[in-house]
Amino acid sequence: MVNTGMQLISFTCAVTGWIMAIAVTALPQWKVSAFIGNNILTSEIKWEGIWMNCIYQTTGHMQCKTYDSMLALPPDIQAARALMCLAIFMGWLSCTVSCCGMKCTTCAGDDRRAKAGIALSGGILFILTGLCVLIPVSWTANTVVQDFYNPNVPMMHKRELGQAIYLGWAAAVILMISGAVLSSTCPLMERGGRYRRGYIGRSFANSPAAAPDPPKPITSNNLPLKEYV
């Protein structure tokens, strides 16, 4: 019961992290305009995402425009597109595999060894999904910080970290921790193929009962006893 509860909690957290990764992919707030210099009062805020640029005005009006050419984008944006799309696909695959390997489902029948292997595979896929989210987010953050402290970059082109960067870091951490917890709920194996923990109760309960040994004749001094009437 404890392992089943841990599986449900870790799976729910992993799905939440996957949804957060989808939101990070769609949001344009990867880079925001930096408020530096003498004039801190601006009438508009510029947002730069991996799919579009947006300009938000103080009047509440917002205009967005998608990038015209993909090949003209910087390398970090191109890598972020590919890795975030890969993370979304791997997250969906992780959810499907993990559902089949959880104890509260009936997939794989009564084969507890197969269910444990499926759950372990789902946890590893969640960890890889978190890495696919962490790499582009950290790469973009490093580019923003380097350009901000680079004196050769004009002040009007300097950017700061947007809300999507922080949300991406949180999604990556949730995915990797949930995947690690989901993998740790799988049973450990001992020598001889017996389960050490995890599915131990159900494994012995579903095993067929051993046939009793046939009766042996009673002997005395290595000679069989005879019945007399």
TrEMBL record:
The chain crosses the membrane at residues 7-27, 79-104, 116-139, 164-189. It is found in: Cell junction, Tight junction; Cell membrane. It comes from the Eukaryota. This is Claudin-4. InterPro entries: Claudin, PMP22/EMP/MP20/Claudin. Belongs to the claudin family. The keyword Ligase does not apply. Residues 206-229 are annotated as: Disordered. One of its GO terms (cellular component) is plasma membrane. The keyword Transmembrane applies. One of its GO terms (molecular function) is structural molecule activity. It is a multi-pass membrane protein. Keywords: Cell junction, Cell membrane, Membrane, Tight junction, Transmembrane, Transmembrane helix. Pfam families: PMP22_Claudin. The gene is cldn35.
